[in-house]
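Just wondering, does anyone understand what follows?

——
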Amino acid sequence: MAGNAPTASEYVVHHLTHLNSTGHAQENIVDWSVINLDSMFYSITLGLLTVFLLWLAARKATSGVPGRFQGFVELMVEMVADQAKGIIHSAESRKFVAPLALTVFVWIFLMNAMDLLPVDLLPRIWEGVYASAGGDPHHAYMRIVPTADLSATLGMSSGVLLLCLYYNIKIKGLGGWIHELFTAPFGSHPLLYPINFAMQIIEFVAKTVSHGMRLFGNMYAGELIFILIALLGSTATVFGFVGHVIAGSIWAVFHILIITLQAFIFMMLTLVYIGQAHEGH
């Protein structure tokens, strides 16, 4: 930030504060009255990039020997198709769900990969833009990893929940699904109806919350470690600089595995939850 160098705590807090619709630092990790503009911008931008990349791969697809890009995309398509086929037995549903799962995987991977950019790169650029517009750069907040925002990951998991509800009704019919809500998992005795319904609602809520929080927790922790490593490099000592380079390089290499694994896990759970919606108790 411009002006006096921030303390360690100020540096961390600044990098963990969202650019939101209020223009002020957000005190709560989740506030439904506040829109995190940075998460919206990067998630939508990377979503459009995902669609463009997949469209480009489909447009350039040939029946001959594929190039590297086409070969890589075809490998991912086959991987996702195989996973979907083993989980969702309806061929009709897979026509939509399999491409959706591939899009989710690529989209989340790209959002996660924002963590690999230098911590201060985009925030510093934003500070310059903010200052040139007459604002105080100390209040130029910018977080660039949408999946490190709980509201974003819960939004994605809520989207998966809506798909599950849709397929429950489509496959079982509205009456069949309502009947299942009150008779599973403990049986169709009238005294068990309230218990069954409560268990079903708890299951839906638990799956949705855990689905979003798993991705958020891993990416938030990764982002925080990168910030702490960047803070080490700001100590203006040889030891701090060397430690920053070594630690940052090691963590970046390890983090490539994390961002890929988290995208894969979110995709797989999406397939599993939608697959469960196709099955009766």
Remarks:
- The CA atoms of residues 4 and 270 lie 47 Å apart.
- Helices lie at 8-15, 37-59, 68-87, 91-113, 121-132, 150-183, 193-233, 238-277.
